[in-house]
Design brief:
By secondary structure, the chain is an alpha/beta fold. It folds into three domains: 195 residues, Phosphoenolpyruvate Carboxykinase, domain 1 (3-Layer(aba) Sandwich), CATH 3.40.449.10; 274 residues, Phosphoenolpyruvate Carboxykinase, domain 3; 75 residues, Phosphoenolpyruvate Carboxykinase, domain 2. It is built from 17 helices and 30 strands. Strand 6 and strand 7 form a beta hairpin. Bound molecules: guanosine-5'-triphosphate (GTP), sulfopyruvate and manganese (II) ion. The site of guanosine-5'-triphosphate has 22 residues, from helix 9 and strand 18.
Length: 581
């Protein structure tokens, strides 16, 4: 075995025997290896080559039409005690889950290659990083993990030095939705995933490791593993700030992380840099601040809606060395999706001639690309110590009620805000789209343990970090009576970020309301915005007392569902808001 780590060597042997894999291949992460596997995927039809002139090194992959999103109803947290998984998770007893998965995996790799992918989540020499090994029979997964993580020889060397790693076993199986499970064993730092080749179900370093398993580890070790983007903002004076923002899946993290400020801001000298677009690991530093790394090395982003107008930085990185999954294709072999431009594609995401009816690209179609290809990607993303966070933002899609921006009055209030944000569901997971559900810290599908304990852990950060970030909520998705978005969003979200930073640095006042601090009329910079004035903005920055009183009752009812593990402080905070309302 090409490793000195005995546990790893034995595990690979045992899995190979149980799955009856035809051969074992250890990924080294080299360019030659990438090239070989690309050629193989082209040959077996997993990949289609896209237009080499316009999109060099880009491939199209169409997944099984029944395998296009995360499957929350088939995702389990298998802790010894059911109560530890909490009402926020599906639970199965570890012995039962293990037996179920062992049965599914028995002989499933006959005639297939077992790929061994050693990977590191985070900069390879950072003490905040953590390693894992994914065993998979999918070469498509290998190529995605190559872009999304630091994978190969360097990661294996770190594993051999450190000893421990997260074990992730994956097989696409038969892609049968009835034989599909994503099981997590946080107490054993183990993941078993069967029957899906799609993103979060199959790229085990991402949601399975970096959120579900890592959140559990983080609780024990005193840090936070969060579903957040990380963004750097330099103001005209040269002051550098960092913001982390948690929005549920397909609610704008990638877009905010790559924001290009409006014209006037650029002239004035504002600069935005991207650290991460989906996951953030934060730890209190010696200076009392929270220091954050992006554990990923690439972006697995939503394609629809990405355009020259909405996200030019993303578009600029996508013309080269990118894997496209479930997008449409133009006549001349270019990738296409709704919102890109007004061309009409020739093929839809199933590879059929596009009829003109319905979406040509799947609403959850994605691109996979190295973070290094992003024009705004910051060198700070490679820093071993991470970046210090000034503001934490929670958000979601709310057509009504929730204002454009709102600042928490203190940490406990901020944790309550995060714990009770709600959002309309999206195509990132199977199931109904557009239903408002609570999605605490955007972690509903990703927290590896009981939400009550999770909120307690968030509150406990006060004891470990004396200079915690300010906390805010935002909502880019308010709609008017015509069903149109009231806020332009995208680059113009910079205007909200400017206010947030001014608040963090105590440079601007605010309107105090029962539910938080909101911008005073005239305090948001609207220069250069057509159609939006302080008066049209008014409804976006108002708190309706009656509606919010109703919301608080709903929040109380929601928190009570989590029983006595919910910290009393959250109820006290809630009561104070109810009284103020
Ligand atoms: P995941 O990768 O699933 O975690 O999603 P994400 O949170 O990174 O979402 P992303 O940035 O990919 O945006 C999802 C969709 O929301 C895209 O279709 C975007 O075009 C759209 N979107 C993003 N930001 C805004 C905004 O400010 N306003 C509006 N109206 N739409 C937005
Ligand atoms: C999400 O759904 O939040 C994603 C895509 O970022 S996936 O990798 O499938 O989780
Ligand atoms: Mn995500």
């Amino acid at each position: 075995m090409p490793t000195s780590n005995q546990v790893l060597a034995e595990w690979v042997e045992q899995v190979a025997a149980h799955t009856q894999a035809e051969q074992i291949y250890w990924c080294d992460g080299s360019d030659a290896e990438k090239e070989r596997i690309d050629q193989m995927l082209l040959k077996d039809g997993t990949y289609k080559k896209l237009n080499e002139q316009t999109h060099p090194g880009c491939f199209l992959h169409l997944s099984d039409p029944q395998d296009v999103a995360r499957v929350e109803h088939l995702t389990f947290i298998c802790t010894t005690e059911k109560a530890d998984a909490g009402p926020n998770n599906h639970w199965m007893a570890p012995s039962e889950a293990k037996k179920k998965m062992d049965d599914l995996f028995a002989g499933c790799m006959k005639g297939r290659t077992l790929y061994v992918i050693p990977y590191c989540m985070g900069p390879i020499d950072s003490s905040l990083s953590r390693c894992g090994v994914e065993l998979t029979d999918s070469a498509y997964v290998v190529q995605n993990m190559r872009l999304m993580t630091r994978m190969g020889a360097a990661a294996l060397a770190r594993i051999e030095k450190e000893g421990d790693f997260v074990k992730g076993l994956h097989s696409t199986g038969e892609l049968d939705p009835n034989r599909r499970f994503i099981m997590h064993f946080p107490e054993q730092l183990t993941i078993m995933s069967y029957g899906s080749g799609y993103g979060g179900n199959a790229l085990l370093g991402k949601k399975c490791h970096a959120l579900r398993i890592a959140s559990y580890q983080a609780k024990q070790e005193g840090w936070l593993a969060e579903h957040m983007l990380i963004l750097g903002i330099k103001d005209p004076s040269g002051r550098q700030s960092y913001v982390a923002a948690a929005f549920p899946s397909a609610c704008g993290k990638t877009n905010l992380a790559m924001l290009i400020p409006p014209e006037g801001y650029i002239e004035d000298g504002w600069e935005i840099s991207t650290i991460g677009d989906d996951i953030c690991w934060m730890r209190p530093g010696e200076d009392g601040r929270l220091w954050a790394i992006n554990p990923e090395a690439g972006f697995f982003g939503v394609a629809p809606g990405t355009s020259e107008r909405t996200n030019p930085n993303a578009l600029a990185m996508l013309y080269k060395d990118t894997i496209f999954t479930n997008v449409a294709e133009t006549e001349d072999g270019q990738p296409w999706w709704e919102g890109l431009d007004d061309r009409i594609p020739k093929f839809d995401w199933k590879g059929n001639l596009y009829s003109g009816n319905g979406s040509a690209a799947h609403p959850n179609s994605r691109f996979t690309v190295s973070a290094k290809r992003c024009p705004s990607y910051s060198i700070e993303a490679e820093a071993d110590q991470g970046v210090p966070i000034d503001a934490i933002i929670f958000g979601g899609r709310r057509a009504s009620l929730v204002p454009l921006v709102n600042q928490a009055k203190n940490w406990v209030h901020g944790v309550l805000m995060g714990a009770t944000v709600a959002s309309e569901t999206t195509a990132a997971a199977t199931g109904e789209v557009g239903v408002v559900r609570r999605d605490p810290m955007a972690m509903k599908p990703f927290c590896g343990y009981h939400f009550g304990d999770y909120w307690k852990h968030w509150l406990s950060m006060r004891g470990h970090a004396s200079k915690l970030p300010q906390v805010f909520t935002v909502n880019w998705f308010r709609k008017n009576s015509d069903g149109k978005f009231m806020w332009p969003g995208f680059g113009d979200n910079m205007r909200v970020l400017e206010w947030i930073l001014a608040r963090c640095h105590h440079e601007i006042g605010a309107k105090e309301t029962a539910v938080g601090y909101l911008p005073e009329e005239g305090d948001l910079n609207l220069l250069g915005l057509d159609n939006i004035t302080s008066s049209t903005l008014k409804p976006l920055l108002e708190i309706d007392g009656q509606e919010w009183a109703n919301e608080m009752s709903a929040i109380r009812e929601y928190l009570e569902r989590f029983g006595n593990r919910v910290p009393e402080q959250l109820f006290n905070e809630l009561r104070a808001i109810e009284d103020a309302l």
